[in-house]
């Protein structure tokens, strides 16, 4: 791990894992510490992962101004990391809500992106969000699972924003609700800065028409990975998002949900490594 200073003076932490060419990794949540990304299914065998703890998460400092938790305000942090790494252009991988930050950075600094990987990211920054209907349709694909009858009512509570939802609804975010998935889900709260989470998409964070227009200047190829069983975003939503990128292409991972590197490491790593190494 190393630390560096953001333009506003906040000390940020970046964890380093693996070997090979650098890959900057932006976590989702929103505002979840990068620890949940792990080694991204073994991608560390192909790439050196630079996993950024966003401000106020993990080993990064809490900023003096909480308004800087807003997604667009953190673009400068990503750019500061690029400068710290001494990269003229960088490969970036972003998961889920982190894809919004990646999109805003790419829109503001298109010349600094070599390749971009967006993993199960709905891209509210581009005006796309998973609807409750899409989420329910994906959840119903799991009706054969032994846990479905108990978990689905809790999922409905979660969609309604109820505080009494049991965390069994997390089962729908994993392709396999096994011991590893349950352990991964159990760490969500301790890894997430809830105050920052509430401010990430605050008013003014996103201007979808302007961002989509700016992304027409992005020459870098973009890989968008969708989970076959994911509802937020479902594969069709990811296809709609891909049309916002001039060189966007979609891969749907069979049997995967929101964390595809946990559902089938071999498939995930093969697709990402192949994309990143393409001429």
Descriptive account of the structure:
This protein is an alpha/beta fold and 279 residues long. The chain has a single domain (2-131, 194-277), classed as Rossmann fold (3-Layer(aba) Sandwich), CATH 3.40.50.1820. It is 34% helix and 17% strand. It has helices spanning 75-85, 98-108, 132-140, 148-159, 179-186, 188-191, 194-200, 208-215, 235-242, 260-263, 265-277, and strands at residues 2-5, 11-18, 22-26, 48-53, 90-95, 113-119, 222-227, 248-253. α2 (98-108) links the parallel β5 and β6. It starts with a strand and ends with a helix.
> Which blocks of ≥5 consecutive residues have pLDDT under 50?
none
Q: Gyration radius, to the nearest Å?
A: 18 Å
CATH structural architecture: 3-Layer(aba) Sandwich
Q: Strand fraction band?
A: 15-25%
Shape, please? globular
Under the CATH scheme, which class? Alpha Beta
Question: What is the subunit organization of this protein?
Answer: single chain
The CATH superfamily appears as Alpha/Beta hydrolase fold, catalytic domain
Q: Estimate the mean pLDDT confidence.
A: 97
* Beta-strand segment tally: 8
Order of strands in the sheet with the most strands? 1-2-4-3-5-6-7-8
Q: How many alpha or pi helices?
A: 11
Q: Structural class, please?
A: alpha/beta
Series of H and E elements: EEEEHEHEHHHHHHEHEHH
Largest sheet: 8 strands, mixed
Taking the alpha carbons of the first and last residues, their distance comes to 30 Å
Number of domains in the coordinates? 1
